[in-house]
Design a protein that fits this description.
Two copies of one chain form a homodimer.
Chain A lengths: L11 E7 L1 H4 L7 H12 L2 E8 L3 H14 L2 E5 L10 H9 L3 E3 L1 H13 L6 H4 L3 E3 L3 E3 L8 E4 L2 E4 L3 H11 L10 E7 L3 H14 L4 E9 L2 E10 L2 H14 L3
Parallel strand pairs in A: 1-2, 1-3, 3-8
Antiparallel strand pairs in A: 4-5, 6-7, 7-8, 9-11, 10-11
Helix pairs in contact in A: 3-4
Chain lengths: 247, 247
């Protein structure tokens, strides 16, 4: 890559969203975009997202397919105290390990509930069930921890709790250089600039160029997004594109 | 199923969202929730969602995996006029068929652009490339059609265009009976009602029961959602659950 520092280490990830409520349309997912943005900022490439129902077979199959293909697999949802929360058990099954109440997770929950003056009931204790060999991810919002086993990072589905867990786990993630991007807003339909755009993509084959159409007051316009690890090369391509578009 | 009409035909579907912009966090997906709600309303069960990048190999693999497993596969994104729009070609490859400019799609585009007084340029004509054997899906918003090939329904990524295409294709879809649901809002943390909730799930094993926690002014509360095809059985389960929860 011109001007770059030679071979770049690319760190990839997938996200598995677990929950019937997303698939039924009852709940609008907020986590995909938040996780995508966060990973992009810290230099991890999110390469696939899957949403599967609260079904052990589906979760196990998706976890095993995705953890084998990507450097990291993040999951959201299904780690609460109710009977339909089956993520921890499904992850244990995917890894072929046992699952039981984890002493450290139990003491985190005891401490959390003690401060609130409520009991650690059997239902609450269910949230301390952690697959063997996993490490805990702190949950400053509601006590019950997430966990990490191998390259799989298991987080809550409630967005504010998920974000806290994602922040907590970030320092221990291996990251690459963030992909830099330049957005060029074009006040015309993408069909009008498609030929010039394709010509610049051919000229700057090492800069990924995408066109994202949208309607602005009912009129089709486009955002052209250029991406590269190399700031200099990115600016060169953006300047060339602006010039041919007369911007 | 008690009170039901015997064997129920379940019509399943998957959704494949195609686009780097979702995975980079640049664009927040709006289509998953809209499609999930629509399919739920017309009696089709959305069972899986995947998001993959603008990469032919990834698209082909996902299309072939998902169209084999579900009654329908819907896709969004990547059917515009720019070089990064590779969905139509990837679908043709997945089906092992040729792709070329479709005369009917071309005349739709000609008509659309003629009314606006603009030319059908080669870039615009690219949007008339349709895999052999596909039927067209009307696009009242911006002219360029979606298409259906076998059980795969290929739609635009711009939300207003996607919705128009989804409406257009709906009359030709085979549907089942819609899953009915009752939501019981509980003003307590789900950990407080988990035991009673699990007991009712055991009692009404044929009614799917899920708990969806959220924070209300920072306090954990939950929506309990009961789902069944059978209205009578659903009401019975909801009444029993309300009673044990003192609601």
């Amino acid at each position: 890559m011109a001007g770059g520092s030679g071979e770049e280490r690319i760190v990839t990830a997938a996200l598995l969203v677990i929950g019937d409520e997303i698939l039924s349309g009852r709940t609008e997912d907020k986590n995909i975009a938040a996780i995508a943005r966060h990973l992009n900022e810290i230099g991890i490439r999110l390469r696939e997202v899957r949403v599967v129902p609260d079904d052990e077979g589906e979760i196990v199959a998706a976890v095993n397919a995705l953890r084998a293909r990507f450097a990291y697999l993040f999951t959201t949802g299904g780690i609460g105290p109710t009977h339909d929360d089956i993520t921890a058990d499904s992850i244990a099954k995917a890894f072929g390990v046992t699952i039981d109440v984890d002493p450290k997770a139990k003491s985190l929950l005891l401490e959390h509930y003690r401060r609130r003056g409520v009991d650690l009931t059997p239902a609450r204790l269910r949230m301390a069930r952690i697959p063997a060999g996993a490490s805990l991810i702190e949950n400053p919002v509601s006590g019950a921890p997430g966990f990490r086993i191998g390259n799989v990072i298991v987080m809550a589905g409630v967005p504010s709790i998920m974000r806290a867990m994602l922040e907590a786990v970030t320092p221990e993630l291996e990251t690459g250089r963030p992909l830099l991007s330049v957005t060029i807003a074009v006040d015309r339909p993408e069909s009008e600039i498609a030929d010039a755009f394709a010509a610049q993509q051919r000229r700057f084959a090492d800069v990924a160029m995408g066109s994202y159409p949208r309607l602005a007051n009912g009129r089709p316009v486009a955002d052209l997004v250029l991406r590269s690890l190399d700031a200099e090369r990115l600016e060169e391509a953006a300047a060339a594109l602006r010039e041919v578009l007369g911007l």
